[in-house]
């Protein structure tokens, strides 16, 4: 967190978050207290991981994690799920995700679906505050990281928290190999 001059406890910054993220933080439960979650107010133009790393340093890539929305289909049913992996990996959509969700086909959800269903901005989607009932698949490497930088629900800002806190989110399943090289 030393690289960010503007890191503050997230509860002081709820006004900068999207409604679902702020609501989830107000209801925060689990062994990691909400006072260990921080918000960094960043330029929306630096929201993409590559630009953020270029702006703050290559070391940040190892601490960053990206959340994507996946659409898993079986028959006529579609299941939307959040998937969180370290930024230097990619989500194994057609392997781990498809098998875990019991789908015949899985793909990244269209941008309109991702933002419409989550109430978050594209490029800022976070696992905190995803719709109730959604599966949330988190790579084990994320959970084992001492600190992780994730989206805040909007392109403005990032959240920093202990990786183990993500294992306690609603609907979470921690999976080995979700993120592949």
TrEMBL record:
Pfam families: tRNA_edit. GO terms for molecular function: aminoacyl-tRNA deacylase activity. Residues 59-168 form the YbaK/aminoacyl-tRNA synthetase-associated domain. SUPFAM superfamilies: YbaK/ProRS associated domain. Coiled coil: none annotated. This is YbaK/aminoacyl-tRNA synthetase-associated domain-containing protein.
